[in-house]
Amino acid sequence: MKFTDKQIKSLKAKEKRYIVTSDEDARGVGRLQVRVYPTGVKKFRVQYFTAGKRKTISIGTYGAITLAEARTEYNKISEKLLNDIDPQLQAKEEKIQKEILETQKTLKQMVDDFYVYINENWADTTINRSILILNRNLLPYISDELLPYDFDIDQVREIIYRVYNRGAQEQARLLRSIIMSLFKFAIDFDNSPERFKKPNVYGVKVNPVRDISFKTPQNVGDRWLDENEIYKLWHATDIPLHTHNYLKLSLCLAGQRVMELYHAKAEDFNIDKEKTFTIPQSRIKIKKRGDHLLPISHLAEPIIKSLILNRGATGYIFPHRDKADQPAHISTLRMATQRWCKKNDFKLFSPRDIRRTCKTLMGKAGITKVERDILQQHDKGDVSTLHYDRYDYIKEKQIAMNTWTKYLCAILKSPKKPTQT
């Protein structure tokens, strides 16, 4: 049958759909067909054979397109068949490529997604440092159109060594580590089970930072305060009030991470009933373990009450001097500590060294490493801890805290020979 508009219009709907094939077309270039549905709808399609298999490809609905337009599309398909191109397969590939182009993100967009990811999974101090380093050392040197998979090892080396060659070796090491994490995030995302058979968003197959390595001297801290230094520090009368209160409270609370304590709010402390200090997950470095609960000792209680009494407008116990609704900067704490050390010919230390001090002296007090790790929330990477252990260990923490408080009190009375329990 040679298709004409009159003939197509005359095709009647039947109980079941049926197909009418044009007989005017040559072999090997496909056949134009009309499929008639019980509803009366008529659709153009082309039937062809490739590798011995019958295939069809839809052109459009009669009425939405004319017979002439259908013939034009048929001629295009016939030309592909003459050139051994499977039009159905080509259409699928074109659809996939279109989806890829619509889904594909640029490197700068990938960085934005990475920021969202780390804000949900990393500690605030690490987040802020990482964003600052990438904003300063990566983003200004890449184009808006650069795709993640086009960012090769040579470009990464240029970015890293720009920092390295200006003498900032430690920052170069951090930059390398952060870019490594950035691309690991992209690879993990595209290869996640929920993305199976979906177009890649970033298209990164290999981490370009993987083969870039250089050694830089890392600042491995070894400073800790001995008993005599703790005695002098505690009883000093010339340390700024907030700085002194922080240092003493940090000692009392077994050396928690600086930001986790320095950015605490009054609401984190339960003084009246449980006598506990809760470090919320949002402020914790190791977020996967949830909130960190600590017992408050009789030595810490009066310091906490005083800080709560003088808290900032939004509850921070160490408020910013000029902005009461914000926490004080950690740099202020560090500089005040260093000034006091220099003034008193005291061996320099930083607030973070209190953590190492407590870790060391708690060992001398007879507290086991496991108990010290529990108090200081040192991460455990085993499967049972990561996925199943949600016990808060408050009883064990209380026993260890009592032992530490007793030892610390002995130091504050006489640093010479504190009693070991």
Q: What is the subunit arrangement here? A: single chain
> Judging from the principal axes of the Cα atoms, what is the shape?
elongated
Structural class: alpha+beta
CATH homologous superfamily heading of the largest domain: Intergrase catalytic core
What is the rounded distance between the termini?
A: 103 Å
Total strands: 7
| pLDDT < 50 runs, ≥5 residues | 386-390
How many structurally independent domains? 3
CATH class of the largest domain: Mainly Alpha
Average residue pLDDT = 88
Q: Approximately how much beta-strand content do the residues carry? A: 5-15%
**Rg for CA atoms:** 35 Å
Helix tally equals 16
CATH structural fold name of the largest domain: hpI Integrase, Chain A
Portion of residues within helices: 40-55%
Can you offer a commentary on this structure?
The protein is of the alpha+beta class and 421 residues long. The chain folds into 3 domains: 5-87, Double Stranded RNA Binding Domain, CATH 3.30.160; 107-195, DNA polymerase, domain 1 (Orthogonal Bundle), CATH 1.10.150; 227-413, Intergrase catalytic core (hpI Integrase, Chain A). It has 16 helices and 7 strands. The chain has helices at 5-10, 67-82, 87-103, 107-121, 124-137, 153-164, 169-190, 227-234, 241-252, 258-262, 301-309, 330-343, 353-364, 369-376, 383-387, 394-413, and strands at 18-21, 31-36, 42-50, 53-61, 269-270, 276-279, 292-295. A 4-stranded antiparallel beta sheet has the order 1-2-3-4, covered by helices on one side. Helix 5 (124-137) crosses helix 7 (169-190), helix 6 packs antiparallel against helix 7 and helix 13 (353-364) packs antiparallel against helix 14. The longest helix has 22 residues, at 169-190. The radius of gyration is 35 Å and the shape is elongated. The termini are far apart. The relative contact order is 0.07.
